[in-house]
């Protein structure tokens, strides 16, 4: 191996270590048979057992799942429509309008949504307000993914469908939708992962009622970083990771097939 | 009644006039070609026939019925796209079945028609393949099959052979002629390749800057170009400035500066004193060693400036005393170059009194 390669590899290794060691520690200590995150004592699943007996934690998890599923469902439909519109009508302001919430600092979005819900809509904060808030910032992500896929496609395919006798709706159902489906599913999974672990916007729009998972974890940490927190974090990490891997596989996998 | 009638069609994009008052009528069963350089408006015209675009002025009539307000899916016109535009998520058989399904054909009939269509393009065993598993030529044949399967009144072909390599393109040209003959479907073909247009078409409309420059049979387009653009665009041609000295019903006598008198075939509407160019094809010019002045019409002495040997023929570029260059084509009937003229050799060039065309400015 050449000298420059050694430096390059070391730099890469350090960067990845910096990113992943904290995560690994969390996972490892979730199986540690000790109440302290200090030294390795022995393997146990008791923290997971404790977690599944923690009523409040279960409710928080259930609430978060409901929110994530609803928000990603709504965001996928709206985001797909936005992506199609941005691609078809070459309007300058439309992408700006859709993509801005993606780039906006979350804290700003959180405050803005809070004021909007309370002062304009006169809404009681709760599950509904969180779902709307999460849908808002997920639409942009779905739209970006769907548009990227459309941009890589031969426009004449859609014209060919019309030319051969398909109405605009048939063209969408039989040609456009199947072709963008990997991007739509990837967008849905992405939205799900963004929604389920969102803290800032959830914090602003949740009100006082229901416990929500990321907030619940934060509340537990305020007391102490218990192995139970490690356990729930590990599970959350696993869920998110699976979703991201599926999303990445779906989108790039189909692209590869086309490039052949 | 013509099958397709394009009446005074104009299409503008902002300040740019893509199609400028074009009128063409196409008969049923014809292989009609729109030929022209890129940007000449041929694609815009095709898109208006297909229904993807609408004229700003004028009418497009199919079987005498104005097509405005009829969306593409309601027009009995199908298109073969330059990129083939096969549906990547459908098998070859499903691609071909698509127009039949949209037309509400019964499943049994779809099955037999798809089988037939696959046989016609020699892809009988490829029905279950996906488009990305086919070669360029095979994709092309699927696109033809899909365009023809529902028996359209008109098939539009948008430079369908552009992406193929030279040898395959020639094969596909022959296949295309046969396909059109067998089916009797009217073809409107778009290309910028003049040799393709000459080889395939019954009639050609040569387009430039949104206008039709000449509409005629291939042999007339090539042999009797109407103006300088057509002469220049179709095939190789040598051009010399000339002025009309005599306009007889049988021939024209032209004066070419510093060269003398040239005889050319007569043409309507040419008057004595008209200025223009004499255009002559390389294969009409003979070249020989006898480099001496003789009293013959259209016979001049010159010097070889260079040559292009391309296997079957050699093109010699001969410079005449007035500085004009004329190309002469010599078929290589024996192995190697048929005759050896080298750069600098004095040679004689000559052509028949009825060769060449005078084009006035």
How would you sum up this structure, described in words?
The complex is a heterodimer of chains A (260) and B (361). Chain A contains eleven helices and no strands. Chain A has 260 residues and is mainly alpha-helical. Chain A has a single domain, classed as MetI-like fold (Orthogonal Bundle). The longest helix of chain A has 34 residues, at 55-88. The relative contact order of chain A is 0.14. Residues 253-260 of chain A have low confidence and may be disordered. Chain B has two domains: 4-228, P-loop containing nucleotide triphosphate hydrolases (Rossmann fold), CATH 3.40.50; 236-359, OB fold (Dihydrolipoamide Acetyltransferase, E2P) (Beta Barrel), CATH 2.40.50. Chain B has eight helices and 20 strands. Chain B has a six-stranded mixed β-sheet, with helices on both faces. In chain B, a hairpin with a 2-residue loop joins strand 9 (203-208) and strand 10 (211-216). The interface between A and B is medium-sized, with 20 and 25 residues.
For this structure, the CATH topology of chain A is MetI-like fold
Helix content bin of chain A: over 70%
Give the amount of beta strand of chain A, in percent: under 5%
SS-based structural class of chain A?
mainly alpha
């Amino acid at each position: 191996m050449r000298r420059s390669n050694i430096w390059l590899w070391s730099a890469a290794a350090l960067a990845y270590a910096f990113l992943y060691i904290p995560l690994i520690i969390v996972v490892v200590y979730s199986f540690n048979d000790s109440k302290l995150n200090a030294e390795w004592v022995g393997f146990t699943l008791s923290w997971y057992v404790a977690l599944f007996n923690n009523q409040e934690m279960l409710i928080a998890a259930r609430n978060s799942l409901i929110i994530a599923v609803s928000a990603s469902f709504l965001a996928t439909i709206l985001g797909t429509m936005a992506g199609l519109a941005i691609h078809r009508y070459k309007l300058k302001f439309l992408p700006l309008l859709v993509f801005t919430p993606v780039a906006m600092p979350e804290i700003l979005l959180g405050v803005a949504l809070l004021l909007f819900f309370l002062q304009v809509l006169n809404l009681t904060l709760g599950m509904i307000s969180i779902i709307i808030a999460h849908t808002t910032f997920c639409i942009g992500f779905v739209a970006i993914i769907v548009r990227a896929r459309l941009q890589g496609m031969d426009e004449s395919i859609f014209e060919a469908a019309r030319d051969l006798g398909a109405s605009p709706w048939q063209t969408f159902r039989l040609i456009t939708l199947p072709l963008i489906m990997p991007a739509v599913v990837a967008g849905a999974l992405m939205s799900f992962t963004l929604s389920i672990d969102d803290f800032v916007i959830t914090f602003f729009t949740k009100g006082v009622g229901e416990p929500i998972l990321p907030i619940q974890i934060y509340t537990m940490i305020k007391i102490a970083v218990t192995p139970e927190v490690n356990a729930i974090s590990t599970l959350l990490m696993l869920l998110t990771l699976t979703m991201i891997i599926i999303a990445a596989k779906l989108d790039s996998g189909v692209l590869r097939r086309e490039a052949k | 009644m013509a099958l397709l009638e394009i009446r005074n069609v104009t299409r503008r994009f902002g300040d740019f006039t893509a199609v400028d008052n074009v009128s063409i009528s196409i008969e049923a069963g014809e292989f009609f070609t729109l030929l022209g350089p890129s940007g000449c408006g041929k694609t815009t015209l095709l898109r208006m026939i297909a229904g993807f675009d609408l004229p700003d002025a004028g009418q497009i009539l199919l079987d005498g019925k104005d097509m405005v307000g009829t969306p593409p899916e309601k027009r009995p016109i199908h298109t073969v796209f330059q990129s083939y535009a096969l549906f990547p998520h459908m098998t070859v058989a499903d691609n071909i079945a698509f127009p039949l399904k949209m037309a509400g054909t019964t499943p049994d009939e779809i099955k037999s028609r798809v089988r037939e269509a696959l046989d016609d393009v020699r892809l009988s065993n490829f029905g279950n393949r996906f488009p990305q598993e086919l070669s360029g030529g095979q994709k092309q044949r699927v696109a033809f099959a899909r365009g023809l399967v529902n028996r359209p009144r008109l098939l539009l072909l948008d430079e369908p052979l552009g992406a193929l390599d030279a040898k395959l393109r020639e094969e596909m040209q022959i296949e295309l002629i046969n396909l059109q003959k067998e089916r009797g479907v009217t073809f409107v073909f778009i290309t910028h390749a003049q040799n393709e247009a000459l080889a395939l078409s019954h009639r050609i409309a040569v387009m430039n800057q949104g206008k039709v420059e000449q509409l005629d049979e291939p042999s007339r387009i090539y042999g009797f170009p109407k103006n300088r653009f057509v002469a220049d665009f179709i095939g190789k041609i040598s051009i010399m400035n000339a002025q009309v000295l005599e306009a007889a019903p049988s021939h024209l006598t032209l004066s070419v500066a510093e060269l003398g008198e040239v005889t050319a075939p007569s043409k309507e509407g040419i008057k004595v004193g008209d200025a223009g160019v004499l255009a002559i094809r390389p294969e009409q010019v003979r070249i020989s060693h006898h480099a001496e002045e003789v009293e013959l019409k259209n016979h001049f002495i010159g010097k070889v400036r260079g040559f292009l040997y391309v296997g079957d023929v050699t093109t010699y570029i001969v410079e005449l005393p007035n500085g004009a260059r004329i190309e002469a084509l010599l078929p290589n009937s024996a192995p190697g170059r048929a005759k050896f003229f080298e750069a600098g050799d004095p040679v004689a060039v000559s052509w028949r009194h009825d060769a060449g065309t005078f084009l006035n400015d």
